[in-house]
Design a protein that fits this description.
Strands 1-3-4-2-5-6-7 form a 7-stranded mixed beta sheet, sandwiched between helices. It has a 3-stranded antiparallel beta sheet with strand order 8-10-9, with helices on both faces. It folds into 2 domains: about 210 residues, Rossmann fold; about 240 residues, no CATH class. Helix 8 runs antiparallel to helix 9 and helix 10 runs antiparallel to helix 11. The chain is α/β, with parallel strands linked by helices. The chain contains 18 helices and 10 strands.
């Protein structure tokens, strides 16, 4: 996948590449920088604070499609005194002169006040004149005031299309209908609702669709950008599911052996929990990195992970098939088939006991992995694996985290909370049979990267792929 975003060259450069140039404008503290962070998926762009006037100069970034710049976005300072500037414009360029809007704005930019009292407004208007259009960011929690109408009058005078974007739309204090009505009275009927903290999954599509209506000469560029974003979104989702599948295979295959003494068994159980927690932490960090978030965004991680299984998964068909292939001298194929059937259908039955005796007696050539485990059981050792309920809980939790990451804007400052996304899913997964891939992993401890005898294999890779596909359908 090509890189989605990158920092632009110094502001004010001449546009030689035909990219669409957009100035992000608006009143102070409405979320202009937050919008750019979310569109670029870059939590480090600019500075975000809950105080006015944070951005004091123009910063830019680029959105790329197949390595080429498709859109250049410029973050601008907040407008603070539109009413006074309008009065000053009436003095500089009286209505009787009948100058058009851009000419009036240029006269202001050529005046001494553009470097003095109205320096901040001058930066905004100058950048908008250089661009193809403006994105006017609105804090939807604010009441519609005269200052907003004055700002829009100034921005409209630049002669470029304006697309209002309503921010913070999930707030209970939002005034969306009030803003839509006020914008319509000013002739601005194309409006986008885009909460930069929790953007809708189709928020970018809506934004670029509305821009394509306003800027038909750039419609093909915006369509290409939408397609690229959709491909990257799908790739991130598939990569995330693969990371979760890898974790589940690792933990399902994880197996510790302990002597039968209670204190030794409890020590092994605690070691198993620690390894499982560490593996989940590794998965969480990888998911956060894949979605370009910080580790500090999801600080509350540790689950109790209580639940262990003291038994052996020796009887999975694939494990027994491998045994049948490897067994040669010392045991007839028919006897092997009978033992396999007995074990698969009835646990350690008479046929299985015969197989154990054969292994103990040395008839099993080489006492391979399965043979050593059977011998260990005969000597009283216990094998410990993670319980089904823990695997289900890990599945639910990671799927909820993926859903939260896909709904989180890169301007969000608070910690990620997945509790609401887990509601109801646990019960649904509890009723489902544990996926076959995890049962197979239970019978194949060498699949766990947490084990000393980990062995990469095509079977494991295929199991991860199939499990990721099943996770996608949950």
């Amino acid at each position: 996948m090509p890189e989605l975003s990158n920092m632009a060259p110094a502001p004010g450069r001449t546009n030689h590449n035909g990219a669409l140039r957009l100035a992000v404008v608006g009143h102070t503290n409405t979320g202009k920088t937050s919008l750019l962070r979310t569109l670029s998926r870059n939590p480090h762009f600019g500075e975000v604070k809950d105080s006015p006037g944070t951005t004091r100069h123009v910063e830019g970034l680029r959105l790329l499609v197949e390595g080429d710049t498709a859109v250049e976005l410029f973050d601008t300072p907040g407008l603070e005194d539109g009413m006074a500037l309008l009065d000053y414009l009436d003095v500089l360029a009286p209505p009787a002169e009948r100058l058009d809007g851009p000419s009036r704005i240029q006269r202001f930019l050529d005046s001494p006040e553009s470097l003095g009292r109205f320096e901040q407004e001058a930066r905004v208007l100058r950048k908008l004149l250089e661009c193809d259009a403006g994105i006017y960011v609105i804090d939807a929690r604010d009441p519609v005031l005269a200052k907003h109408r004055d700002e829009l009058t100034l921005l409209a005078a630049c002669g470029h299309p304006l697309l209002p974007v309503l921010n913070f739309t999930h707030s209970p204090e939002q005034r969306i209908e009030e803003w839509r009505g006020a914008l319509a009275r000013l002739g601005l009927h194309a409006v986008v609702e885009f909460d930069t903290i929790a953007p809708p999954l189709d928020g970018e599509d809506q934004l670029y669709d509305k821009l394509a209506l306003l800027l038909d000469t750039h419609a093909s560029t915006l369509r290409a950008l939408k397609q690229d974003i959709a491909q990257q979104r799908l790739q991130r989702h598939e990569d995330a599911l693969a990371l979760v599948a890898e974790m589940l295979i690792d933990i399902a295959a994880l197996r510790l052996v302990s002597p039968p003494e209670p204190d030794r068994m409890e020590k092994a159980a605690e070691q198993l929990r620690g390894l499982a927690r560490k593996r989940e932490d590794h998965c969480i960090d990888a998911l956060l990195k894949r979605y370009n978030f910080r580790s500090s965004d999801f600080p509350h991680r540790h689950l109790p992970l209580k639940g262990e299984r003291w038994d052996m998964d020796l009887f999975h068909p694939q494990a027994l098939k491998e045994v049948g292939i490897q067994v040669g001298k010392g045991m007839a194929a028919g006897a092997m088939a009978g033992a396999t059937l007995d074990m698969f259908t009835a646990g350690i039955s008479l046929g299985a006991a015969t197989l154990i005796g054969a292994a103990a007696g040395g008839l099993w050539q080489g006492a391979d992995k399965l043979g050593r485990r059977l011998l260990g059981r005969l000597r009283g050792y216990q094998e410990l694996t993670v319980d089904d309920a823990v695997l289900r809980l890990l599945s639910i939790r990671e799927l909820a985290l993926i859903a939260a990451l896909e709904r989180r804007g890169h301007a969000a400052q608070g910690p990620i909370d997945i509790s609401a996304l887990m509601d109801g899913r646990e019960e649904a997964l509890r009723k489902e049979k544990l996926p076959e891939e995890l049962l197979e992993a239970r019978a194949t401890p060498e699949w766990s990267t947490l084990a000393d005898d980990y062995q990469p294999s095509l079977r494991r890779t295929e199991a991860v792929r199939r499990l990721a596909g099943k996770l996608a359908r949950l």
